[in-house]
Write a structure and sequence with these properties.
Layout: E1 3-7, H1 14-23, E2 27-31, H2 36-39, E3 54-57, E4 60-62, H3 65-76, H4 90-117, H5 125-138, H6 140-145, H7 159-173, H8 182-191, H9 195-200
Parallel strand pairs: 1-2
Antiparallel strand pairs: 1-3, 3-4
Helix pairs in contact: 1-3, 1-7, 3-4, 4-5, 4-7
């Protein structure tokens, strides 16, 4: 069986791509123009929603970026990228994985939509600004969490760092630089020195 990841450069598919590289797994990547629902319409046969990413692994098809990361570490581990159920930070780890999309990436996608993806006549600076502030306010939780930690949980690099770290990739593309507070900047400088991050950034 071949793991196949459907990917757009610096889209949420970067999370599982980074994870695949960290784990050293064999995979095939299909890089598509964004948004693929309009520019790579054959992708709709894989993921009818047209959202990115999608991962296929035999009979398994998944489309949620953080969920794919968790699947990979659980299915193809053991790996230090995962936090086990018997570790003290297991709940913290799961919370970061789910927060990465439900709380943090969600408002960013609205900023993206209403500043760049919508036609000029339907763009909405007020909505974009409101959700920019929403994201920045909620990202303060990362600054607080890193006050006495190098990584987000279990004193090591995990997919929690991958999933939350991607939020800063997207923030950078949206010029949301106010989230680069001292602890976040220190952490970001550490995780972006990893070879897997550097390899996946421009794919």
């Amino acid at each position: 069986m071949t793991i196949t990841l459907y990917h757009c450069t610096r889209a949420r598919s970067m999370r599982p791509l980074w994870t695949l590289e960290e784990m050293g797994l064999d995979y095939e990547v299909v890089t598509m123009p964004f948004p693929p629902r309009y520019l790579h319409k054959e992708y709709l046969a894989v993921n009818p929603l047209g959202t990115v990413p999608a991962l296929t692994d035999g009979d398994v098809t998944m489309t949620e970026s953080a969920g794919i990361c968790q699947y990979l570490v659980d299915r193809y581990g053991p790996t230090d990228l995962a936090v086990a159920q018997d570790e003290a930070d297991y709940g913290t780890y799961l919370n970061w994985l789910h927060r990465s999309d439900a709380t943090l990436t969600f408002p960013q996608t609205l900023v993206l939509r209403y500043t760049r993806l919508e036609p000029e006549e339907t763009r909405n600076p007020q909505v974009a600004n409101d959700y920019r502030k929403w994201f920045a306010h909620r990202f303060r939780s990362v600054e607080r969490a890193l006050e006495d930690r190098t990584y987000l949980c279990s004193e090591r690099f995990t997919i929690a760092d991958v999933c939350i770290g991607y939020c800063l990739v997207l923030a950078g593309s949206l010029d949301i630089d106010e989230v680069m507070t001292p602890n976040v900047t220190r952490w970001w400088n550490v995780i972006t020195e990893r070879a897997a991050y550097k390899k996946t950034f421009d794919i």
